[in-house]
Amino acid sequence: MASEQKAAPKIGIVDIQKLVNQTPSVMALRQETQNQNVALQQWINAVNAQIAQELNQANRNRMTQQYQLELNQRQQALQSEYAQKVQSIDAELSKLIADVAKKEKLEYVFAKGIVVYGGEDITDKIAEAMKK
User: Which contacts of 90-97 are long-range, i.e. CB under 8 A and separated by 24 or more positions?
Assistant: First the structure.
């Protein structure tokens, strides 16, 4: 009786960091975040100038509290928006990895950093798929 040996699974590896750095949506998010931080800093500078011009200490305190509240709300909104966009990018990247893995008939795909030896590097194939 001959025993059947199952073929070794095809394993893919992907350099996630390289993909993240090449993803147009990540680059756009970085630029958008930088622009938002600059705008927020400009707003803070304008608010501080406004507070400095107020001579009445009670009014200065009230303005400081009011602007601190507004600053917290703005920061929370930016953080929430950023988290949603990162989640969307992550889902997009995961789908591309899965699509390429299916096309290449890979049973498993691991991050490049955890694979010591072997596996088919599909990073460039995923990068090409991102451009489409």
Answer: 92/23, 92/25, 93/16, 93/19, 93/20, 93/23, 93/126, 93/130, 96/126, 96/129, 96/130, 97/14, 97/122, 97/126
Tokens found for residue 32: 């958008």
Token pair, residue 38, equals: 């600059």
pTM (2 decimals)? 0.73
Annotate 21-49 with DSSP letters as a single string: HH-HHHHHHHHHHHHHHHHHHHHHHHHHH
Q: 11-131 belongs to which CATH class?
A: alpha beta
Using one digit for the tens of pLDDT, what is the confidence trace for 46-58?
A: 999 999 898 889 9
Please state which of the ranges 6-10, 59-63, 95-99 shows the lowest mean pLDDT: 6-10
